[in-house]
Structure prediction request, 210 residues.
Amino acid sequence: MVRCLLVLLFFPIFLFAQKTKLKEVYFYNSPQLSKAYSVLKKNKLIKHGAYKSYFENGKIKETGIYEFNLKVGEWIEFNNYGEPQKYKTYKKGKLEEQRKTGIWEKFYEGGKVIKRYDHDKEEQLETLFVLQIEFPRIARENNIQGVVEIGLVIDEDCEIKEINIVKSLETDCDEAALNAIRKLAELIQKYDKTKCTGIKQVIPVHFKIE
Prediction:
């Protein structure tokens, strides 16, 4: 009877003492690590032990633990800044609990529009609009730097009612600034009509050689 009890107690320890081998996977044609995890030496298709995956910028993407190909315990997902975003708890491969944390971002128009949601405060944050303006060649060659100020009036339907140059810098810079503000108005109309409450403001557009 005593011998049988000892066998039952040590059996799970025997399972976790399986010999493993570290496996590393890299991004295509890159020295950057994509995944690192352990597999059983006897069967390299079975993940067993700590698991980590990475973004191409080197930041950790996900961490967790496998037991015989099944996710167990707490798994954490990160954003590409290295900040925790999602916590998941698994038991024998089955998801038991999940919670999101921090500020989540969704990118549109190639990153020009960033919608954000704060899961800690459970509220939608202000949408960000990021426009990269190409520095006009002639102005750059002549080391022309400064600010163009654009006056903008948008009605409640997100339509531009008025757009004009309040402060000029140089012809090509003025035109580049006008085009950028027109694009901004289009993005606001498409992605965040809550801002269309009758906007009337002067927007500075900076041209600086770095």
